[in-house]
């Protein structure tokens, strides 16, 4: 009987143990944490707001009973499973990417409404920065080494850098030698049928 | 022991949900615990999948291509279109023999007709309005708001309505 109770509740113990693994990082680092699981942590990134968990990824926990019940060092498990995309810490850059996207919301209308060299150049730089990360994300998604091979993957990323450089250079040159981005948009919109 | 097993297998009379009354055993979740070897952890997502013998994971074709998926991929498509226009303007300024504004004047001199101008504005403004509004939706998500199924749907409809209003405003301005 005791055995049957233990067996029936085994999944709960397992749940608690994995839950505590998920929760522990929140105390360690409230900014950005990763859910610890043995197999799927690469895809996990719980989002939090005001310290509450908004999303916990659905994961399948299949572990040896030994691991579940043994007194493992939890922070060691977490440290081992913290998501490191491409081996780098992307947290700081992520904030910059999103900050620039948010700036574009105000900047692009302002640039067309009040065309001037400062807004034109700011628009060129921030738009191309945003475009660069966008193209990089697309290249990394569709040209993964596992799908297209290392060479093609590298060429795709190189192409992104080439396009970013020429586009930024071209737009700054356009602002310098021509009417500028803001006035250009106005000129296109002023076209008559 | 046999009594316990017999009782556990009986249909539960007090539970009326569904056509089939469950028995006690069916109510408890069956979990099979089996030892699996720890996969070799590579440096990144690709290495990891490679070591698990999963060339593409999760495979996209297992998901239904519903309205939310279409809205999602449209953000990437419109972003790519806007990127294309931006690259065209930048490279155009570098390689074209005349100033870009010269070609705008030349286009005007051709008197292309109201329909063509409207079509031009449509292919420029539609991706912009969509990407602008859905970009804001993304940024709201990035503050961990509306990240529920109903939140994703609600914001989608607000985004589509805003895109429509913005597009009309841009086209007939
Ligand atoms: C107010 C203006 C804009 C806002 C708020 C905005 C916002 C965003 C956001 C939040 C993303 C990331 C989507 C994600 O997390 O998957 C994104 C992606 C992207 N954006 Fe923008 N964007 C704006 C304008 C532009 C412009 C002008 C361009 C073109 C030069 C552009 C090109 C792209 C591209 C190529 C992507 C990558 C698509 C992807 O990864 O799926 N965006 N945008």
From TrEMBL, chain A:
Residues reported in the UniProt entry to bind heme b? 130
- List ligand-binding residues for a ubiquinone: 142
GO BP term (any one): tricarboxylic acid cycle
Q: How does it sit in the membrane?
A: Multi-pass membrane protein
Q: Which residues cross the membrane?
A: 155-176
The Gene Ontology CC terms held by the record are: mitochondrial inner membrane
The superkingdom listed in its UniProt entry is Eukaryota
Where in the cell is the protein located?
Mitochondrion inner membrane
Q: Which Pfam families does the entry mention?
A: CybS (PF05328)
| Any GO MF annotation of the entry | metal ion binding
Q: Which Gene3D superfamilies does the record associate with it?
A: Fumarate reductase/succinate dehydrogenase, transmembrane subunit
InterPro entries this protein is in?
CybS, SQR/QFR_C/D
Query: What UniProt keywords are attached to this protein's entry?
Result: Electron transport, Heme, Iron, Membrane, Metal-binding, Mitochondrion, Mitochondrion inner membrane, Transit peptide, Transmembrane, Transmembrane helix, Transport, Tricarboxylic acid cycle
Q: Where does this chain mainly localize?
A: mitochondrion
Please state which protein family the record places this protein in.
Belongs to the CybS family.
The record describes the protein's role as:
Membrane-anchoring subunit of succinate dehydrogenase (SDH) that is involved in complex II of the mitochondrial electron transport chain and is responsible for transferring electrons from succinate to ubiquinone (coenzyme Q).
Q: What is this protein called?
A: Succinate dehydrogenase [ubiquinone] cytochrome b small subunit
Organism (species): Photinus pyralis
From TrEMBL, chain B:
Q: Which Gene3D superfamilies match?
A: Fumarate reductase/succinate dehydrogenase, transmembrane subunit (1.20.1300.10)
Molecular function terms, GO-annotated: electron transfer activity; metal ion binding
Q: Main localisation, per the record?
A: membrane
**One GO term describing the cellular component:** mitochondrion
Write out the annotated subcellular location: Membrane
Q: What sections of the protein cross the membrane?
A: 77-97, 109-133, 154-172
Alphabetized Pfam families for the sequence:
Sdh_cyt (PF01127)
Q: Name one GO biological process term.
A: mitochondrial electron transport, succinate to ubiquinone
The way it spans or sits in the membrane comes to: Multi-pass membrane protein
Keywords recorded for this protein, A-Z: Heme, Iron, Membrane, Metal-binding, Transmembrane, Transmembrane helix
Checking NCBIfam families in the record gives:
succ_dehyd_cytB
PANTHER family, from UniProt? Answer: SUCCINATE DEHYDROGENASE CYTOCHROME B560 SUBUNIT (PTHR10978), SUCCINATE DEHYDROGENASE CYTOCHROME B560 SUBUNIT, MITOCHONDRIAL (PTHR10978:SF5)
Protein name, per record = Uncharacterized protein
């Amino acid at each position: 009987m005791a055995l049957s109770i233990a067996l029936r509740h085994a999944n709960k113990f397992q749940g608690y143990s994995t839950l505590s693994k998920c929760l522990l990082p929140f105390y360690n680092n409230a900014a950005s944490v990763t859910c610890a699981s043995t197999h799927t942590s690469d895809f996990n990134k719980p989002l939090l707001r005001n310290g509450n968990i908004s999303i916990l990824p659905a994961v399948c926990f299949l572990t040896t009973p030994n691991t579940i019940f043994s007194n493992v060092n939890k922070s060691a498990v977490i440290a081992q499973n913290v998501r490191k995309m491409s081996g780098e810490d992307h947290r700081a850059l992520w904030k910059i990417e999103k900050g620039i996207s948010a700036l574009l919301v105000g900047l692009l209308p302002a640039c067309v409404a009040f065309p001037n060299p400062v807004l034109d150049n700011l628009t060129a730089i921030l738009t191309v920065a945003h475009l660069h990360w966008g193209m990089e994300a697309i290249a990394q998604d569709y040209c993964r080494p596992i799908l297209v091979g290392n060479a093609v993957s590298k060429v795709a990323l190189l192409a992104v850098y080439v396009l970013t450089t020429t586009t930024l250079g071209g737009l700054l040159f356009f602002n310098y030698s021509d009417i500028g981005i803001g006035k250009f948009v106005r000129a296109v919109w002023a076209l008559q049928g | 022991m046999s009594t316990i097993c017999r009782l556990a297998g009986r249909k539960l009379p007090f539970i009326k949900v569904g056509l089939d009354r469950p028995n006690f055993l069916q109510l408890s979740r069956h979990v099979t615990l089996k030892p699996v070897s720890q996969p070799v952890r590579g440096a990144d997502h690709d290495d990891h999948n490679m070591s698990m013998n999963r060339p593409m994971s999760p495979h996209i074709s297992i998901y239904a291509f519903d309205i939310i998926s279409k809205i999602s991929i449209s953000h990437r498509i419109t972003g790519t279109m806007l990127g294309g226009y931006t690259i065209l303007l930048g490279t155009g300024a570098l390689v074209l023999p005349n100033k870009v504004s010269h070609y705008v004047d030349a286009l005007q001199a051709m008197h292309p007709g109201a329909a063509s101008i409207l079509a031009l504005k449509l292919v420029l403004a539609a991706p912009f309005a969509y990407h602008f509004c859905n970009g804001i939706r993304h940024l709201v998500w990035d503050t961990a708001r509306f990240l529920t199924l109903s939140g994703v749907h609600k914001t989608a409809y607000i985004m589509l309505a805003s895109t429509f209003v913005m597009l009309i405003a841009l086209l007939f301005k």
